[in-house]
């Protein structure tokens, strides 16, 4: 290879053949400064590779999660070009550590290719720590119909993966947001006093209980409780233990009796059957079992999130002699800590909110609490297991569960249990709801609050105050724009308790990079917006709605008639019914040479590297607030964005369904969207000192949105 070798080694070549069966081959992969190639054996001299792929700024590395092949599980990555999605290489590793190294190396080459494409005109100062290169993985599930079948990693390339299974949602409780500290680093904060209280300390664990009462849950359902402890081990080691359902689990989880795989939905989602081993008067109390969906992800800070929620499945009916318990929400959050005495450490949080069912549960609170504490005590089991294990050199392969359809588990629906089952092929009900999605913190930009090795420096209060005052003076508009001539179908209402409406969110609710961010990583309140939000449309249709700014009577067309510049942000939510929430921002003129002007008139690669979203959920159940978080997200790196530069406007169509992880995350909130108040701020990321401080394009708050209030727009055929 002519290019310099960045990384090389043996990896698993993963794919599917034309008949639908998966295959794996050991191949030698070589990553150069501009090229990825693989060979049957380690290359010598001028050996020709089996396949090559040019790595540039248009490439992405997609995390395909865990895949099963003949009893083995591998961690799959897919490298592809956004402009030529049929050209891709799917590779896998036996352990997560090796896959993550390859992912980091490939993303580093992609970033270097992006800088070369931009001519290094604007060199960023990104703050980096350890192996974190500041870039997040981006992903897409839209496989081309012209793809070689041998390279396909899914028998159903158009099937989008998600966290919603049927009409159920897996709630992510791992991102606690206390609005008073919403812009602080809360990753390792065990609890917020607003939502949790310390119940007791037991076996070296802190046990917390949820404070908020939830009206819609039955009396027999417990309050959410979580155990927090420190385990000496890497996050990868602990994650692999948590994901296991084999004999190893008996060594650390005293509530585990039996576990089996019911259905593998995709690399991040599976449906499991689980029998509990509870010791509360077993002679008189029937044993409990569970059928639940498990979703997992790895965050950019190296932490792992594993989420549980009960659901019904046709291949996992009620079992004779067992009472089917119900998990309202639960899971693990595994976060890295600084090593101590040369040994890796991680904070493990285990949350569970469960209804054990049965006639006496609502009347015997001691039974519910005793069993819940027994399950939470597994964190102490993890700690002791890792403390007594010295074999850390060779990372274990990811364990495999027994498929329930082949296990000898009796059921009232025996015929269905013995029916043939194809892993990774969801039911029709799953397929109908799989395309709903929302953007969340899974794709965060480079200015993470989660820097483990080097803590963020304290900001100078006087310097921050001067930044805020100066920014406020710069943002004072010369002339006000008459907003009465603009309208959208979603109602504008400034009342706090209004429903199915929008209002402008205060800029100071969000924190952005300060003038001195490149030196001390400090952030300041965002202040006033650069543009005015004048209207919001809430659309639905049987197909995706692109280029909505061309619609006659839209706020963009009204702005055009008045000689104003407008930016249209169209958040596209796919599904059996497609939805679009469209925000219209206007201003008098673009300032020549400004960062916003360069963004509007730049190429797509520059736009993708700069468009940022900051989300927040000020009102909603605690479990949803935790799932959304407030970490900034670079939209262009997370999902596919289509930019349409029209006459005096720029429309950005954000295809949320193009991302594997983002498409999954909507399941965390879509089922309870009418109970939520969501804030979103849009801005162009500042990467150099002359671009700082950052300024918001605009911010919006949408409250208790009803799906039924969306209308079908009248769109003329797009001439382009």
From TrEMBL:
This is Protein ENHANCED DISEASE RESISTANCE 2-like. The keyword Endoplasmic reticulum applies. Residues 133-154 are annotated as: Disordered. It is found in: Endoplasmic reticulum. GO terms for cellular component: endoplasmic reticulum. Residues 196-358 form the START domain. InterPro entries: EDR2-like (IPR045096), EDR2_C (IPR009769), PH-like_dom_sf (IPR011993), PH_domain (IPR001849), START-like_dom_sf (IPR023393), START_lipid-bd_dom (IPR002913). Coiled coil: none annotated. Keywords: Endoplasmic reticulum. The keyword Endoplasmic reticulum applies. GO terms for molecular function: lipid binding. It holds the Pfam family START. Residues 4-111 form the PH domain.
